[in-house]
Amino acid sequence: MTKVLHFSLGPVQGFVAQARRTRDFWVGSFLLSYLTGHAMQVVRDAGGEVIFPGIEDDPLMAAINSITRGRRPEEIPMVASLPNRFMAVVPADFDPSLCKKAVLKAWQDIAAAVYDRFILPAEGLGQNTMHIWNRQNNGFWEMVWATGTDTRLLDRRKNWRVHIPTIELGDKCTLMGNLQELSGYTRSICQNERKKQDAFWAAVRKNTSYNIKPKERLCAISFVKRMFPEVSEKVLLCPVVESYPSTPSLAAAHWLEAMVTTKPDLCRTFAQKASRLGRNSERKLALVQRLESAYPQLSDFLNLDPNCFFASSLENDNLWEPNSDANAALRQEVKNALEQFETAPSPFYGLLLMDGDKMGALLSDNSEYAADISAALSSFCRRVPGIIDKHNGACVYAGGDDVLAMLPLEDTLPAALELQRAYRQAFQAIEKKNPNLLNIKQATISAAIIYAHQNVPLQIVIREAHSILDKVAKDGTGRNSLAIKVWKSSNPTLLWSAPWPVVEAALPILETGGAQFSNSFLHNIRRRFEFLKEGPEVFGAADIQKVLEAEYLKTIEHSSRQDEAVRARISKDIVSLIGICRRTINDNGTVQQTNRFRLDGALLVKFLSNKGVEN
Question: Would you state the pLDDT for residue 598?
Answer without folding.
Answer: 81
